[in-house]
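Allow me, if you will, to draw on your knowledge of protein folds for a short while. The matter concerns a single protein, recorded as an amino acid sequence and a row of backbone structure tokens. Kindly check, if you would, that the fold set down in the tokens agrees with what the sequence suggests. You will find the record immediately after this paragraph.
***
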Amino acid sequence: MPVGTFPDAHIWGKSVSDDAWLVVGLGNPGKEYAGNRHNVGFMVADLLASRVGAKFGRSKRAHAEMAEGRLGFGGPKLVLVKPLTYMNLSGAPVVSLAQFFKVPVSNVIAVHDELDVPFGQVRAKRGGGEGGHNGLRSMSKSLSSKEYARVRFGIGRPPGRQDPADYVLSDFSGVERKELDFLVDRAADVVEAIVLEGVEWAQNKYHGG
């Protein structure tokens, strides 16, 4: 069954205790990639897991690490996912888990690095293009839809003539690392806001800075 055919189980602003949300942190597996700009999705997913008291483990249903927990006492269920397929093939484990947990596209959130947003800013949106991001492109193809939510973690454009592909696979600078924990925390806040209140509410609250 295509994921897009699942019934929409969530009305924005009215959380239901048995709602399930699939939160996908995009990144590449392996220690050599852990600190890369391209791996902020993994960083945010790790923080969200600690917030809900969950630990990541290998999924038996998809090539991914997965953690489950509830947002607040009796709140919406979060299925946190870190695909282990490398960025370009992220969609396959996402669609497998969305189908298993019967999560509609409207309840899928991708957390990813964004070249078109300056470093220090976090933006929420629903749908739209992928901006050349291979993880998003793979998700859109596998889900047969672009209408999932995105939490866009700004990394800015590469300096000078540096190739964007090299830039995203490099670590944050020393100056950026001083702000990184705060921004990862902010991105996790944006994810929670989308789940509890909706994308528009999150935009109104967090797009001011």
Remarks:
- Residues 120 and 183 are 7 Å apart (CA to CA).
- The mean pLDDT is 91.
- Helices lie at 40-51, 91-100, 134-143, 164-168, 174-197, 199-206.
- The first strand starts at residue 20 and ends at 25.
